[in-house]
């Protein structure tokens, strides 16, 4: 069994689970809290699994145009936690990053072979590139506008596909 984990603890005060701790106000408090939460979640997942502890797949985040160093540090914590607890890492963030610039945000990337084969995912085939984000939304990978009521993404979105394919690849390799 697997538990796929990624949580943001956004840099701004939006994420209620951070208890008002923000990246800009105190990076030390922010990362201390983040690291404690990683450990606590690992313990909770292990306890819930009982004698059959599931493997945790820590999903590395993609680039953030506002706070790129925050993502580097969070990803490093995910890698450390996975190593300490014998779990897995899926670098899904690399799939939504330029090949030569892992932590550089980009709205568009070249289409992959899969996206060329499945035309709905290569959003600009004439330019051999696909959209990862809407023009007005640099954060979300869904190519439909966000709504006040959270719901699944209603349209095919290459960024979501890239991320999920990497997670699936990592789990699939372990399951063989």
Structure description:
With 176 residues, the protein is an alpha/beta fold. The protein has a single domain (2-175), classed as Rossmann fold (3-Layer(aba) Sandwich). The protein is built from four helices and five strands, in the order E-H-E-H-E-E-H-E-H. Strands 1-2-3 form a three-stranded parallel β-sheet. Strands 4-5 form a two-stranded antiparallel ribbon. Helix 1 (27-49) links the parallel strand 1 and strand 2. The longest helix is centred in the N-terminal third of the chain and has 23 residues, at 27-49. It is globular, with a radius of gyration of 17 Å.
Number of strands: 5
- The rounded Rg comes to 17 Å
* Mean pLDDT, all residues: 92
Taken as a percent bin, the fraction of beta residues is 5-15%
Order of helices and strands: EHEHEEHEH
Descriptive labels:
single chain; 176 residues; alpha/beta; Rossmann fold; three-stranded parallel beta sheet; two-stranded antiparallel sheet; 36% helix; globular
At a glance:
The protein is 36% helix and 10% strand.
Set down the secondary structure blueprint:
Blueprint: E1 2-5, H1 27-49, E2 55-59, H2 68-85, E3 88-90, E4 108-110, H3 113-117, E5 129-131, H4 158-175
Helix pairs in contact: 1-2
């Amino acid at each position: 069994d697997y538990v796929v984990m990624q949580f943001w603890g956004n840099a701004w005060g939006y994420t209620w689970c951070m208890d008002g701790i923000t990246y800009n106000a105190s990076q030390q408090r922010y990362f201390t809290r983040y690291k404690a939460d990683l450990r606590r979640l690992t313990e909770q997942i292990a306890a819930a699994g009982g004698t059959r502890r599931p493997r945790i797949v820590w999903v590395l985040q993609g680039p953030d145009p506002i706070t790129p160093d925050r993502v580097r540090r969070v990803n490093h914590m995910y890698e450390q936690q996975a190593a300490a607890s014998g779990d897995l890492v899926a670098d899904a963030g690399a799939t939504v990053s330029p090949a030569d610039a892992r932590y550089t945000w980009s709205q568009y990337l070249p289409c992959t072979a899969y996206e060329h084969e499945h035309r709905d995912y290569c959003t600009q085939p004439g330019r051999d590139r696909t959209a990862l984000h809407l023009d007005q939304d640099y954060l979300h990978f869904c190519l439909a506008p966000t709504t006040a009521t959270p719901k699944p993404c209603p349209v095919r979105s290459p960024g979501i596909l890239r991320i999920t394919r990497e997670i699936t690849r990592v789990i699939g390799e372990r399951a063989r």
